[in-house]
Amino acid sequence: MAGRPTAEYLRLYALEGFLLRLSISAHRERFVLKGGVLLAAHDLRRPTTDVDVAALRTANDVEDVRRLVVEVAALAAPVDDGLVFDLNAVTAAAIRDEDEYAGVRVRLVAQLATAREPFHVDVNVGDPIWPAPAEVELPRLLEGDPPIVLRGYPVEMVVAEKVVTALQRGLASTRWRDFGDLYLLTGRVAFTAGVVREAIVAVAEYRRVELEGLDGVLAGYGEVGQRGWLAWRARVALTDVLPESFADVVAAVVAFADPVLDGGVADVVVWRPAEREWRG
Questions:
Q1: Better-scored residue on pLDDT, 73 or 49
Q2: What is the average pLDDT value for the chain, to the nearest integer?
Q3: What's one Pfam family the UniProt record gives for this protein (predicted)?
C-alpha cells in the first residue's frame, strides 16, 4: 500500500472501520465478506470503493437490509478509531446494474475529524457459497493494530464467480478488475481442481449458465479489451503487478479455468501458481 494516494487511504480506513464494527456486532455470522476488500486476506489489495458482503438468512428487502447495516454502523469501535458514521445520511436501493447480482446497495458517510468519506455496502442476497465460509483475517492499515476477523468467501468461490461472469459477458465484458483479480489470485494460491470445479458448477447452476471453455468465448478478447485494460490498470495504480498485455492476462485465466471447465484435469490435481499450470 506504500505510495498510494491519501484519498485511497482515507477510503480504506472508512471501510476498515465499518468492518471492525461488523466483526463485533450481533450480525457477524450473517454477513460473509467478499469482493475487493477480501483480497487483503490473501495478501492482495486493489483500490475499492465499497464493502461487498453476502447475507445469509436475510430477505432481499431494501429496508430490512438498510436496518441491519445501520445497526452495525451505530456501534462504537472496541478502541476509538476516530470514525463516526452519519446515520442520518444512510440511503438504500435495490442493485440493478448487474443481472447476475441480486441485493441491496446501502450508501453511508464516514466522518474522520473534518473529512467526510462516502462509501457503500453492497449486500448480496441468495447466491450460493461453496465451500462453506471460513474465518479470514484482514490486515489493518495501521501497523500494530490487530487484524479484523470475519467470515469470508472461500477463495474458490471468488474465482468461480469471476469465471462464470466471464462466460456470461464474453467479449462485451468491461470487468477488468475480475481479470486482474483472477490473474493475481492464480499467481498466489495453490487451488485443487475438484474444489474449484464444484464451486463453478454451483455458481453456474444458480445463474443458469451453460459451462463451456473460456478459450472460445473470449477469442480475440485480448485485443478487443487492450485499451480498456490499460486505462483501468493505470487508474488503479497496479502497473507494477499486472501485465501490460491484456492478451497475456486472458491467456493466463484461460490456462487456469479451461482444464477445470472441460474436465481435462482430475479432481485431485493441484494448481501450481509459480508455474501457472495444473500438475498432479
A1: 73
A2: 94
A3: AbiEii
Residue 46 · residue 36 · CB < 8 Å: yes
List Cα–Cα distances, 211 to 151, 189, 258, 271, 272, in angstroms: 29, 23, 10, 20, 24
Distance CA 200, CA 131 (A): 11
Binned at pLDDT 50, 70 and 90, residue 4 comes out as low
Global model pTM greater than 0.90: yes
Q: Are the CB atoms for 270 and 190 separated by under 8 Å?
A: yes
Cell numbers for 280, please give them: 498432479
Tally: H helices and E strands in the chain: 10, 10
**Grid coordinates standing for 115?**
473529512
Closest by CA position to 36, among listed 22, 47, 23: 47
* Strand-pair partners of 53: 33, 123
Retrieve residue 46's grid coordinates: 486493489
Amino acid 132: pLDDT: 95
Chain centre distance of CA 191: 17
Among candidate residues 87, 94, 90, 83, the one with its CA nearest the CA of residue 61: 94
Kind and range of the H or E run holding 217? helix 214-217
- Judged by DSSP in three states, 120 sits in strand
- Average pLDDT on 1-13 reads 78
